[in-house]
Amino acid sequence: MTETTPTKSSSNKVKGGPRFSSNQRDIVLSALACIGMVFGAFYWIQHFEEPRALKQRIDTVTANIADHQRGIVRDVITQLGERVTEQTTNAELTNALSQGNISADNLFTQSLKRAFPEALDTKIIYIGRQGIADERSDTLRLRNNIEIDMLRKSIENNALVIEAYQHDRQWLISFVKTAGKHGAVYVTFNAQYFEKMLNSLAGNTVSIELIQTYKSRRDVVIKPPIINYPDAMQSRGLSVPGWTLQVYPQEITVQSLSSDSTLLWLICVLCVALIAGSHAIFFVRSYQIPPPPKRATTNSKGTAAPQAEETPSLEQALAKKLAANRQSSLSKRDNFPAPDSAPPLAELSTGEATHKKKANATRIAANCFRAYDIRGIADTELNDNTCFAIGRAIGSEALDRGQSKLLLGRDSRLSSPRIHQALLKGLLSTGIDVTDIGIIATPMLHFACHNLNVGNAIMITGSHNPSHYNGMKISLEFATLSAKDIQALKYRIETQEFESGQGNLDTDSIEQRYIDRVTGDVVIAQTLKVVIDAGNGATSNIAPTLFEELGCEVIPLFCELDGNFPNHAPDPTIESNLSALKAAVAENQADIGIAFDGDGDRLAIVTAEGRCPPADQLLMVLASDMVARNPGAEILFDVKCSRLLSELIVEAGGRPTMWKCGHSYMKQKMADTGALLGGEFSGHIFYKERWYGFDDGMYTAARLLEILTLSGTTMDEAINSQRKLVSSPEILIPVADERKFALVETFAENQKFTDAALINIDGLRIEFRHGWGLIRASNTGPAISMRFEADSEASLTRIQNDFKDLLLRIDPTLVDSL
């Protein structure tokens, strides 16, 4: 073999280190130049472009909020002015003034006080012959020269006069209007009334000042405790001469509008990595082009390919799915059933001791342990032994989590006292302490958890189900149990994994604290006539009192506790159950009707014109207000809701998020995402802004009335302003519990809607260009649930027929149900 001597050109080493070729040097310089440009662009975006864009976003959002606030304040002032003017047009009042028979305690004075319950004071005064207030002994005197000057202006111009002024070191706002030639009406508010209203509207997104200017004098009538970002202030003039609203963005608004530079850094690093990697490849010239894949050869003899297996029919596919589910259940009989991937509540023991316990386990109805709660027929499926065992399981689980106390409430169903006693006996036998809250609504028990700082609670309720049903909604560590957590309780009962001890029992009452909390938060700007239908459920004793204290004129309907629910089923989402409420609203010429379900965590509305908007339309009204005051806010809704809701949230500047049906799933998602508002088509509404994030029908109704009165609109007007699509109600098709999930899975596997988008977070929602359809297994009963929406009746019918055809091919026995 001949030794080859390397030539000079092939040598890659010299004294002093490696020598790069000119091409390699050019590659290195190119890489450095590209990386330098990337970092230069990054620096320019972060230090010049982003601050400019942020300021523009802050100015735009603050301006939008300022316009919104000005409009609402203007409407409130207009409404109050109209109410004052209406009082002065009373012919009997002007006649009494002309005759001089007004006294401080007469009917007119008392009527004026009732007309303005939110005012600091009201008064009727005489106007003497010289055009000034007649200071007789039976006339309330004017406070100062400003009130005298306001009277003079009203007499001269025969107009309503509004001014702000200080008295006894506090700011007051008065409305003055003459009542004929012989008297005038004064209505005075504490400026804190308007301040509370403004703060309620603004939330924590902005701070607001009310400025009054007179000649060269400038007074701050309402001043926030902290003013941030004065350079971004937006000023808006009001309808009252000299009044100006100044709006400043708060820190939370600026943070929500600020861009997270993490993504920008990642892009920068990725660009640098790509530049370095690509140049390195060229530098070392070590890449290789992979060989092309081998082509399949054609049989020269022309032999036909083997025939594919015969495709089973859709009925066979469903049968196969059911058989697989049954086999899976059998194979897991000795293990914890796992409907989702989350870990069980506690480590589950196995072995000989566990199997011995199983032999003596309490027989329970497995179908009672559902996705959201425990629910079944009270007298059979939830007998005393089962309820006692459930109490032991919940108490043991709470103790294993390090909890020592639990709250217990119940609704008014006839079976609730019996279940309460058996459940309580089981709880106390584990050693956990129990505080009995009594008969209350479910959201009041959630409120009690926060008020008493006890995060563990059981609510005995059948919710909206008929009177012979009952159940339990369970919370541990301020989180509502669902799905696997509830199955873990069932497993604990089957394996007899119970703690033993002797707990203590005490009682408490939460009603007045709940009322005080709501009335201290919600501002209803005008007196509304409201019909409340409690459906003889758990809100019967509390809802009328709450809305009376909020300043409403309440007409109670079926507000007597009666576990038989003699007037209608406790489910307000079924429109036939609202017929009596519709009639009462029309008969009493009420502004609105409000219905609650059996345990008070859901609501339905009847408008003054007798309409019953579905919950997703109601959520549009609430979401519009929420996003207007909290730009960028995330709003949750379930898969049954209209696509118009998502579009409205986006147009308003919010972030829509579709999620699973079920109050427990929604509450968990609210906590995970920090969303300020959530809602389900079933009527569950969840408020996190100014509230706690759980579903509360009474609080939601109060917030709705606040929105309507502060914006000066009615529920009918709010609905009329929304876009409309053609939709179906929720359609429930009876299907046995053991078959419903397999049926939906088979539908999803065999659908051929190639022109649609598929959403499978809960069942299957199929989004077409002109509408959508939904099929899912109900988590509360033996049924599958369907709903449809489209741009037209023709599109709606087409989508429904497509779903119906596929369902009948899968299971022809459904023909009588479809």
Automatic annotation (TrEMBL):
It comes from the Bacteria. Residues 368-498, 513-610, 615-721 form the Alpha-D-phosphohexomutase alpha/beta/alpha domain. Pathway: Nucleotide-sugar biosynthesis; GDP-alpha-D-mannose biosynthesis; alpha-D-mannose 1-phosphate from D-fructose 6-phosphate: step 2/2. Its EC number is 5.4.2.8. Residues 293-312, 328-356 are annotated as: Disordered. Coiled coil: none annotated. PROSITE patterns: PGM_PMM (PS00710). InterPro entries: A-D-PHexomutase_a/b/a-I (IPR005844), A-D-PHexomutase_a/b/a-I/II/III (IPR016055), A-D-PHexomutase_a/b/a-II (IPR005845), A-D-PHexomutase_a/b/a-III (IPR005846), A-D-PHexomutase_C (IPR005843), A-D-PHexomutase_C_sf (IPR036900), A-D-PHexomutase_CS (IPR016066), Alpha-D-phosphohexomutase_SF (IPR005841). CDD domains: PMM_PGM. Residues 733-805 form the Alpha-D-phosphohexomutase C-terminal domain. The chain crosses the membrane at residues 27-45, 263-284. Keywords: Isomerase, Magnesium, Membrane, Metal-binding, Phosphoprotein, Transmembrane, Transmembrane helix. Belongs to the phosphohexose mutase family. This is phosphomannomutase. It comes from Zhongshania arctica.
